[in-house]
Amino acid sequence: MQTTLRHSYSSLTPALLGCAYFVLAMLALGHSRFEGGLAFIWGANALLMAVLLTSRINDWPALLIAAGVASAAATSLWGMGPLAAVPMAIINLAEALIVALVCRRFAPGRKFAGSMRPLLIFTLALCGPANMLAGVAAAWVASLLTPVSFGASWLQWYTGHVLGGLTCTPILMMLLQGEARRWFRHTLRREKWEAAGLLFFFALATAYVFYVARYPMLFALLLPMVVIVFRVGNLGASASVLILAAIGGVATMTGHGPLHMIPGTMGERIQYFQFFLASTFLLSMPVAAELNSRRRLFQMLQESEARYRAIAEHSGDVVLNISVGGLIEYASPAAAEQIGCAPELLIGQDAANLVDPEDRAHVSAAIGRALAQPGDVQTVEFRPFVSTRGLEWCEMVARAVVDEHGLPTGIVSTIRDMSRHKARQRALQQVAALDSLTGADTRRAFLEKLDDEIGRVRRGGRACLLLIDIDHFKAVNDRYGHGTGDRVLAGFVEWLRPGLRSIDSIGRLGGEEFAILLSGTDVERASMICERLREMVAANPVRIDSGEAIRVTFSAGLVGLDALVGRDSILEAADKALYRAKHSGRNCLRLAA
């Protein structure tokens, strides 16, 4: 979760920043200009960078003006004099502004002290363009106004400003963002005492190394610092670096500590100390940032696991964790009700055992696709191998679980009862397949049955198609109206049904045109059936509301299904036979040629 760094400061903030900047600059110029040029230690810009990185861009002008005035005043009074005041102020502001702009551009809205990527961007911006460019300008000014050479001035600037930024900016940002306050508020008392003890021990160890030890033992400080990083986190890492800077810096400047054993000037010893301090920072802070990210990730995983357990254990759907090999690793409590098996008994079983053998190939294919495409969700319907309380159809939704390399380590799936949905689906299909007026098959449904019957004929069966048209039906509509015409159509189908077998099908192709599919029947037998149907229809006129009886007859064309002929050709042959029947006086049957 990203936390914004932009805060709105009060109108007093620029003034407070200017005062703090002036004090820090005064201390640095008054105590670390060992060679009369630039200060070897500089922490004022660390404060300015921390404030810029934690404020809105709209507040920057006032903050920069306040810091610029403070810088110019300190340089005039304790630095290289009034001539260098304005140039050095501009250079100081440019350094801080470059760092702030680079960080805002490449890591917007992030905590630079607690995440690896923003911390890396901050370090590169500070050590790269900001101080390399600003150092050149500052060294040029110093070489003109002091006896210190350009190269020595640039090195003094670079080491002093990089050290100040690396050491102080992260912990100042934490303080400005309220991280220390949140840490004190949410950390257990035992952990607070542990952190205080570790930092106190580290302070004693640092004091011993710099004031008591007779041999250079700087390496001895790395172990307690690593322990602090692991136990306290990024706040402890920043505090330990600050403790090391304070104790070690004072000791080195007063002629104590292992760096005093190095021959050279005080400025050179301070530079060595700054390199050591920068090394400890680059060791501790990135590790702390990485550990902080892992802690957040672990917390997110714990929360996700809690949500997953709550959903899985209280859901009516069955939740399964399936290994890459297809074995069940977890089954939710709903398995007892839905599958009829206790969840603990499913652990270690092959997930395919839950599926009807006819559907196992489809389920296995879906699981294979989920493993091959970890980012996609696969859905498959299947019949269960064991059915409980009327469970006929299930739906599985599966998705792969991946490791940190993106490789699948298993499958998380939910199984839900689809029986009622399937029943509704079948009911809707049946309704859609029947003509609402007559109850006969719709044209589409009948043609599908005809295609299936042609397939059976190709496998050695036999069947016939009877195409029927009611005689003079237009005259019925014209004389009695369409309502009566509908009664005639419905009554016509009603009188046809008793003459058909259960394996036969009747469909309405359109208007008054019908078709009958006679399965397992040759043309001779189909002709006899057709004649019987004509007699039944003619002998049972349709009575309308007025009491009048309307006698109905039909013309028919008959064709036997041929394994070598397609559906369209069969329909065309039956239609030609029907046409001949109509032109032969109607109320008769004609066979296809």
UniProtKB/TrEMBL annotation:
The UniProt record lists the keyword Transmembrane helix: yes
InterPro entries on file: Diguanylate_Cyclase, GGDEF_dom, MASE1, Nucleotide_cyclase, PAS, PAS-assoc_C, PAS-like_dom_sf, PAS_fold
PAC domain boundaries: 378-430
E.C. designation(s): 2.7.7.65
Compartments in which it is found: Cell membrane
Domain of life per record: Bacteria
Keywords for this protein: Cell membrane, Membrane, Transmembrane, Transmembrane helix
Name of one Pfam family that matches: GGDEF
Membrane topology according to the record: Multi-pass membrane protein
GO cellular component, one term: plasma membrane
CDD domains: GGDEF, PAS
UniProt xrefs under PANTHER family: DIGUANYLATE CYCLASE DGCC-RELATED (PTHR45138:SF24), REGULATORY COMPONENTS OF SENSORY TRANSDUCTION SYSTEM (PTHR45138)
Descriptive protein name: diguanylate cyclase
Originating species: Sphingobium chungbukense
